[in-house]
Amino acid sequence: MSAALKYTLGRIGLFVAVLAALWLVDVDVFLKLILALAFSAALSFFLLRGWRNEMAEEMDTAAKRRRVEKERLRTALAGEDEPPQSPQSPQPTQPPPTNPTDPPR
Description:
Blueprint: H1 3-22, H2 29-47, H3 49-78
Helix pairs in contact: 1-2, 1-3
């Protein structure tokens, strides 16, 4: 399971647990939701630290991989990273004729 999914499910589970605990209190439903959101955010800061750090490392690794791939594609598109020509297909030294009836240059 990915770290982001694990952390997200942990945050949702913590919110539901705090909301269930607040459900017994006799206050407005909207206030219960706001309090559950605030308390679960504060608790997740401490309780889910390991999963949050794991998710951050996973995202950092993916960002670095995308940056390297992007740079590789840019150099390939710029023509700086062309594969060497094989001996069977030498590179032409002159452009092809524009008209098939024109003599070769």
